[in-house]
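User: Fold this, then the next.

Assistant: Folding the first:
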Amino acid sequence: MDDIFKEPFTNPFTNEEPKEELDKPKFIFLPITPVGLQHLLKLTHKTGEAKKTSTLTIADINLLLYILTKINYYNTAQIPTQNELKEKLNLSQKQISTSLRKLIKNDFLIKTKEVRTYYINPRYFYLGKDKKNKLIEWKKLTKEKMNS
């Protein structure tokens, strides 16, 4: 079983080995909560009028999963530029922008003040044990966004 972790990590999006230490995965599991899984299922199985406005597409889910590979213990993820994402995920820049907006609208992410950095909703995904303080930070950031 331990041999799995000794093999070099290959990026699932590019099939390349990491060039830098920062490109290596920060976790070996998907840090999803039961509420996060229910939210994902709800947004991927809508019908009728609701389907047109808030259903997540494959592109949205691919971007979310990519962002989750960048999660750190502060529950933030710094993502590459849209041009780099375009190449890594094989999506257009418009798809990336649309997907980011949908992920923010559906409370998966919130933009932080740092460049290309997003705070990931700890209600759905989190890394580490300090979920309570991460939820407090999420509420604080959400309140700041509403007031700006």
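Now the next one, as you asked:
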Amino acid sequence: MVAKKKKGKVSKKRRKKLAKAEAARAVDTKEETTVPERLNNLVLFSDVHIGCQHAMCHPDGFKLDAGGIHMPSEDQVTLYEKFVEFWEEWVPEVTMGEPYAIVNLGDVVDGVHHQSVTQITHNLERQRDHAVMLLKPFIEKATAYYHVRGTEAHVGKSGQEEETVAKMLGAEPDKQGRHARFEVWVRVGGDTRGGLVHCMHHIGTTGSSHYESSAVMREVTEAFVEAGRWLDEAPRVIARGHRHRHLQIRIPGGKGDVIGLTTPGWQLKTPFSSRIAGGRLSQAQIGGCVVRYHKGELYVRNKVWRGERPAEVG
């Protein structure tokens, strides 16, 4: 006959086992509730249009399909040097050496568009390969890389050229497995004073500098209307590419300023921009932006170089 144990009494061996299990649970709980290191810096750039004679080219040249080499013009080398300066000097300075993620806002290659003849080659594989060669050394320094699809005239129907390049560059895929997205939401800053950054390529344009901010302000207000309608969190920063010109507006909000911006590009004036309203008199803007959270404030820093105005004659 087995003796019954007295209720409420736990053996020494059992107590040690329970204490060990409790300690293990405490460690597991601590690991599960640890807040991951937040993202405080998001670098934005767009519209590199690789393959165009008015865009960047590596100083060693652009390899052609038949084995030849296109050697860059002086302007193409200057663009490349500014691109290197942007990533190796300006970005580390603005981010104070902290980790950062990157969003490419689209139009990574120039493609074959509008019956233009300004491309180095119409071979899209060559354009894609050169884009990867130029961008990869800088993208590899980021903690995460996101890629947004640009204009179909440049990057193909549904942005298929963009998707190929994004995959080659190791862009983070979305839930559908697409490496190049139509939009991306990124949270910058880990507390209530940080916020969401909404990134897309397209935005309306204008033929007059008087109304250059109109479409940007419209994007901000429409984002708030849509968020309020569906009880979603509204973005704190709305970032767009497409225009090749930088503009930033700031309006006060309950958690701090709400910011709308467009990024500069990495392409000099083309025959197309030389004839359109708003582009005829202005020079190209090249550079990029950083959305940064620092000491309780979410703000945007920008770096913009202007293309040189043509020299005087006579």
